[in-house]
Amino acid sequence: MFLVLGLACQRDQAEPQAKPKAEAEAKTEAEAKPTAQPTAEALPPSARTTPPQREPRTPLAPTMNAHFAHAAQLEQAVIDGDLEAVALHAEWLVNELPKQEMPEAWQPQLERMQAAAAQAAKAQTLAEAGPAAARVVETCGACHQSIGKGPTLPDPPPVPEGDDTAKRMLRHQWAASRMREAMISGSDERWKLGAGAVSVAPPEPCPIPDAEILDADTLALREKIYEIGAKALAAAPSDRTALYGEYLTTCAGCHVGGC
Question: Which domain of life is it from (predicted)?
């Protein structure tokens, strides 16, 4: 009996020591488990962090395409001798171009462009419209140069060959397009390509129906276009805008005069 009581007492004394050991093991196991982090949804609204949102940027490609289209049509209107169309496209560049959507770095050249377009819009003669249209194109290139970006030009089509009137006119137009591309992109190669196409006069003057009824000054423009082309081919970049304006005006004078 004393043996049984003694064993019971020993068991009672051992049990209190086992309980702290079990608690310690449970605590160690709990510490080993990673603490669960609350999800954003579980947090109160005041404790949630919202990532910063960027303002959507206005895509500039459509605006630049419209800008280019009106500048090119302004140039073509000068070539056609159409002062009404000159004013139409120039006024779009002054009044409709969404300048406020464009980056701050572009604004100085845009102001120069709009000043030139305003002069074209109020031009009373082709001699005024041609140089103004050329300055509009020049500001495009100046802007591209200032920001270090610009258009990637596709390969040009072949130079139109032939000596009849239609082929010569196509060649003159081709040359104007290449020189315009050069001014927009700053490409010396493209400028020389355009100017070179009209730098040497053909052996015979351009055949014009009823040429005998045209005045001498108008007929002289047939040859002047090649004189300008030769000057343009050798011109320094700083002289190109003035020569391009003269080229446009010469084309217009011939067309209006009956060529």
Answer: Bacteria
